[in-house]
Amino acid sequence: MSGTSTSVEIPQEKRADIETLAGYGFPLRVIASLTGFSAKTLERKCKTELQSGRHKANAQVAETLFQQAIGGDTACLIFWAKTRMRWRERRPDDASREEKMLIQQCRALGVDPVDLMKFLSREHARLQPKSSLSKALNP
User: Fold this and answer.
1) CA atoms within 13 A of residue 88's CA, in its CB half-sphere
2) Buried-exposed string 53-88: b where 16+ CB fall within 10 A, e elsewhere
3) Is the same domain home to 96 and 118?
4) What percentage of the chain reaches a pLDDT higher than 70?
5) What's 109's DSSP letter?
6) d(Cα 36, Cα 30) in Å, to the nearest integer?
7) Using one digit for the tens of pLDDT, what is the confidence trace for 4-47?
8) Does residue 13 sit in helix, strand or coil?
């Protein structure tokens, strides 16, 4: 065999630093530079710390986001809905295929789609059975 193999031992306090730096999102090359170990050594010897640092940080941020969202923070609620629930905002030109066909058919018949929607809304309200409360308020 040529050369001698040296086994690098990484002390526990350095492992804790590595986990923290990984959690902060530092790239492996920066963690290597800050701790004095090669990136290859860190990948081999500290795989668990590198992964758990990222996972723990993500879990902490997710917990904070969740707590703020259920606490009523509107920005957090919107972010959660868009990323976790796959909600999205619809643009005015983002009509469904069925809506686009209805609009085309209205125009082909010479009917303004907006006027049709207003008419249908009024008719729907007129045909709905009135509750006793609404009858008392609107005789």
Assistant:
1) 5
2) beeebeeeeeeebeebbeeeeeebeeebeeeeeeee
3) yes
4) 83
5) T
6) 10
7) 446 889 999 999 999 999 999 999 999 999 999 999 999 999 99
8) helix
Cβ burial of 22 (10 Å; 0-12, 13-18, 19+) is: buried
Question: In angstroms, rounded to a whole number, what is the distance separating the alpha carbons of residues 46 and 41?
Answer: 8
Tokens encoding 100: 């686009």
Q: Which two tokens stand for residue 81?
A: 């809905």
Q: What gap in Å lies between CA 67 and CA 61, rounded to an integer?
A: 10
What confidence score (pLDDT) does residue 130 get? 64
Give the Cα separation of 74 and 60 in Å (integer): 20
pTM of this prediction? 0.57
Q: Flag whether 66 is in a domain.
A: yes
Domain range for 40: 12-83
Same domain for 67 and 47? Answer: yes
The mean pLDDT value of the chain amounts to 85
Is 75 in the same domain as 98? no
- Asked if 60 contacts 25 with a C-beta cutoff of 8 angstroms, the reply is no
Contact, 82 vs 88, CB < 8 A?
yes
Q: Is the pLDDT higher at 95 or at 81? A: 81
